[in-house]
Design brief:
Blueprint lengths: L11 H17 L7 E5 L2 H12 L3 H5 L4 E5 H4 L4 E6 L9 H8 L2 H7 L3 E7 L3 H6 L3 H16 L6 H12 L5 E6 L2 E7 L6 E4 L12 H15 L3 E4 L1
Length: 232
Amino acid sequence: MVRPSAGSAYNLKEAEAVINLIKEIVKNNDSLNFTLGVVTPFASQANKIRDLANHNFLAEVLSKIEFLSETVHKFQGDQRDIIIFSPVLSKGASSRGEGFLRSTENLFNVAITRARVELHIVGDKQACYKSSVAYLKNFVTFIDSLENSESKFQSPGEKLFFDLLTSNGIHTIPQLPINQYQIDLAIPNNNPPIAIEIDGEFYHRNINNQHCYNDFKKDNNLNKLGWKVLRF
């Protein structure tokens, strides 16, 4: 995290990581029928990410979608299908930078609620946890609790489905790898083997038809391998 003598703080390493994530998102959604935003507390970070995107092959791609890299203030009342949040905070951050973040808890709440479909956080997890910014520390703790308790499930819906099936004597294997796929809940010893897929509402909402198309391909390929696919 760099705090210039003039202007706000920025984190070049984090900005580059955001650009790499954007490349991955674009690669996985080649129809480009979605909107994308980067939200950060610091104007210099927003400018740095925008500059990196414009000096990259991404510039032409991002010109075709509603891409915005701005501070949280500029995003109030606005939304994007996919949001990337960049907190900027890192080891050795200045007390002034942390002080600014401590005073902007309401803006953090705005930032993480701007996403219609997907929210990504790109930042220094340890630095956020060890900082004096309580809401960032609490957010890291919350994410860790989810990862530790539900590590074999990709959503609360999968865990709920798993528990209901188990309570009725139906034993499934979560996230079973079959070729290039992961089956949400698998019953491999059945004849035919059963693949249970749990589709969340937000996964398919207001982005493009790429997710549905990928699911269709997955179902078709699993059928060819002898699996019966049930989607809920």
